[in-house]
Design goal:
Layout: H1 3-21, H2 30-38, H3 42-55, H4 68-86, H5 94-112
Helix pairs in contact: 1-3, 1-4, 4-5
Length: 116
């Protein structure tokens, strides 16, 4: 993964993690809080986010299109949170559902930025 994608993955991880932290009580551990909201531990979240970011179109990460970073970050975070809250990582169909999610996110990004 190139450095821009790696930075995007880290930004996305912290963005999603921080959103879930804001909606839970203070007496739980950070990973426990996250797992209660998202249904995955932070280690699994990191692996899933890396898979999503690896699959994203490279044009998002080109220097001349850097203004897309925040917009795409917010879009992917929002969609991923909605996806993950509906999914069970232990379900045998999770991998297929994640692949379909990634496919739909890429199609939407391509459509929104007229990139075909």
């Amino acid at each position: 993964m190139n450095t821009r994608k790696e930075k995007f993955a880290k930004d996305l991880f912290y963005y999603v993690s921080d959103i879930s932290q804001n909606h839970l009580s203070d007496h739980e551990s950070r990973d426990s809080k996250f797992s209660n909201v998202m249904g995955v531990c932070q280690k699994d979240l990191w692996m899933i986010i890396r898979k999503i970011v690896t699959a994203l179109p490279d044009y998002i990460f080109l220097k001349q299109l850097s203004e897309l970073h925040n917009e795409v970050l917010e879009y992917v975070a929002r969609e991923y949170i909605l996806f993950q809250c509906q999914e069970n990582i232990d379900d045998p169909s999770f991998a297929n559902n994640l692949a379909n999610f990634i496919y739909e996110v890429i199609n939407t990004i391509n459509k929104n930025y007229n990139y075909h």
